[in-house]
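Z., the sequence and structure:
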Amino acid sequence: MLGGRLFVPLRSADYRRLWVGQFVSVVGDKIDQIALGILVYQKTGSELQMGIMLAISMLPAALFGMLAGAFVDRWDRRGTMVVADVLRAACVFAVPFVAEWSLPAVYALAFAAGTIALFFEPAKLSLVPELVGHDDLMAANSLDNATSSVAELAGLLFGGALVAVLGYRAAFLLDGGTFLISALLILSISHRSARPAGEKRISLVPVLGETVEGLRYVWGHPVLRDLLGVYSFAIMGVAASTTFIYALALDRFAAGAVGLATLDGAITVGLLAGSVIVGQADPSGPARKLLMGLLVFGVLVSFASVTPTIAATAAVLFCAGVANMFFYVPMATILQQDAEPSMRGRVFAAKQSLSRVLSVVGFIGAGALAEGIGLTPSILIAGMIVIAMSLYGWTRPQLRLA
């Protein structure tokens, strides 16, 4: 039955609390994203500046991601997420008060929120295997992404109207409130992560050692090493395609906020459809799903370089969204299944750090390429990067069979 396997993880009361909290938070994040993108474009009119804005939110992972993962493995994951949500709420609440006089100050707040998020995401992904059964991990990851897609659609529908009628100040205040709701729901989770006594303290020296240990662990694990390499370099092309969505809507088609919401909404609906399909699929062979998803995504991004209308572009991006879930969900599942529980925080932080470093390159490189050689060849380059990494992954036998 459609949805049967997908909703099995909701039998866990603690997972339900985490699930609802993330739904609320993602709605606010999408409203925030629309407001921030329009704010930056209105103030600068630059595709490069849009790329820089997107890159700044990723930069903290490039600098501090592995250290954050080591701390996550030492701390209670539930408590880590609650504190991260409260601090991110404070950053978002501050944006409308500094946006009027300083765009760099807005970037600084985005950087701070991105730094705090380094602790939330590895903690969440490390906690999920403790809240649901091993056989339900693929379904839980699919449900998480399906829910995020529904929440993003709600944010798009509500966010465009909210920004148009009330301005970006209300959007940022609403997003800050969603972080506080998420914190309250996570606080109600009864599960506590097991960890050695005395590891709450913030001590940099042992954490540096544990960070190095995490890097050695990933490098010495053939599947994890190949998976993170293929996925992270492919994400460079995926990140570039995100910048191109802004450029296509606001520049090529001159469609403004409505056009941006249309293209963003198309890929989000695709993410939702892809999440449901992957969640219903046989959980075996996740690596093959991942590599095929990357290949199809790269081909579709290349098609987007020549689509003549915003409607045709939206159709291509919908299909790209479906393909996206065929590589994202299996990637998270493989990491959860193959990494030792005591190393999950560092493994997910390694994924986050490496992929965010290359996302920064993708975001900024996309803007620079678009302004230098034009939008069409730049989109083709992004698609070719993703295709190349998929083909390379097929040559790695241990990854292919994972």
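Residues 75 and 200 are 6 Å apart (CA to CA). Residues 13-44 form the longest helix (32 residues).

Let me know what you think.
H.
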